[in-house]
Amino acid sequence: MKKFRKILLTLIVLGLLGSVLFLYWPVYQRSVPAAGNDKPVDVVLIGGGIMSVTLATYLQELEPSWNIQLYERRDGVAEESSDGWNNAGTGHSGFAELNYTPQLPDGSIETKRAVDIAEQFEISRQFWSHQVREGRLQQPSDFINPTPHMSFVWGDDNIAYLRKRRDALVKNPLFYGMEYSEDPVQIGKWAPLLMEGRDPKQKVAATYMPIGTDVNFGVITRQLTQSLQRSANFQLHLGNEVTALRQNSDKTWNVTVKNLKSETESTVKSRFVFIGAGGAALKLLQLSGIPEARDYAGFPVGGQFLAFQAPAIASRHGVKAYGQAETGSPPMSVPHLDARKLDGKPVVLFGPFALFSTKFLKYGSWFDLYSSVTHDNLGEMVSVGGENLDLVKYLLSQAQLNDDDRHAELRKYYPSAKREDWKLVTAGQRVQIIKRDPVKGPVLQFGTEIVADKDHTLAALLGASPGASTSPPIMLDLLAKAFPAQMAAGWKTQLLKIIPSYGRHLNDSAQLTNEIRAMTSQTLRLPYLEVPVAVGTQPPASQPQQPSPQTKAKENAELQAL
Questions:
Q1: Full-model pTM
Q2: How far apart are CA 242 and CA 46, in angstroms?
Q3: pLDDT one-digit tens code per residue, 464-513
Q4: Are 340 and 346 in contact (CB under 8 A)?
């Protein structure tokens, strides 16, 4: 008995010791190669996705003489979450995503987040328009295409909510033109697959926004990268993974990089570092050792979709149709039957179905989650896990789904779907932010967040949705946060050439909305819908109003011309 107790006590001590070493690892800093450059480069970008490339594009125009180095662990850019097949959704502009417009306890609809996201997407359109005019992006139809956005629901409560949502949103210039219908025939004209084979007794409703878009961020990333490489001041390093970040006494950074083919390490000194590595950004932020990193942890969630590629199906669904998440499901589970253009061809995706994985990247390591746990964030992770049991239950239920279950979910939106017409596709990984809030305590966030050090020498982007759709405004915010001196010294004036509405809100003025949308629609070859000047200045009628015949005629003519 004494021997057993001794063994048990030894195991307990070893377990505690192992836990301490795990949570406080590394207990020492390993030696790394010295920097190979005495004069620091201006910027090092980590990760070859839409965020890093968008930031590099801004910087190359603002400071053409700056030396910018981009490091990507894959053999090409945009191979993780920026790739078209890895996106959870594209063209997020607040038109159709019901989770952005919650119903408040008093029955009213909160529209602030939807309006904010619509504002951000208008900045994205301006940024891409500028790049087309400058020749950095090529044919607009390569990466952005007109794709109406729909919200589709059934059941009396959901129908009442959708009607109120539409009434609330059309008060805003950015949402003018949104149509509403409970007529199955009309909804069938908008989206035939939603209605064919549906029980005629089922009550349904839908909103329809004709000026929605579909965006391929993989194409944008690759084309902008090709443009960046025309300058001798930009270097792209593929197959290189950042393994250490050390700050020097002069506030510069030593960035140690491993060449994955030669297995050799080298170090480059830089004045500024941006961590735009998607899910891997959290671990790299922790490597930096900046105090701000201690407030964050991450929770990875993968996604799967059912993909329809047969022309007979894909060519008949030309909208993004978003539904309502099931009761108790998290925002990330909002189902959508999504028209996309991938590899130059129309595709329809349905999902998402959650896929739990401990990887932070699609091509990451199974140890990513465990290695991100430290003594700084363990308590927050445990606390958030206890407060989000609905998310845990949802992930467990999703893990048990089989193809028959997925097909049953699909038929709620595409009643006549056949099992042999789709294949299961695994998308990219998303890492949701767990943040230590000074007021609320540990919270689970579903957006994106910029984390920067107090010296303005390092910044990282954490989080996911709406992500790539709002990459230009997110990087615009990063410029203001990480380069305040340069912004004050002249960057703000230069940015007006790229983003003409910079510093103003389109939703405050129908006239400004028309001015900016007309410009971006012409450049990007997208349909344009003029907003009456009175929208946003007078309360709308209590009943949904349809666009005037003149407006409808103009809209239809432009859509057909496209």
A1: 0.89
A2: 7
A3: 766 789 999 999 999 999 999 999 999 999 999 999 999 999 999 999 99
A4: yes
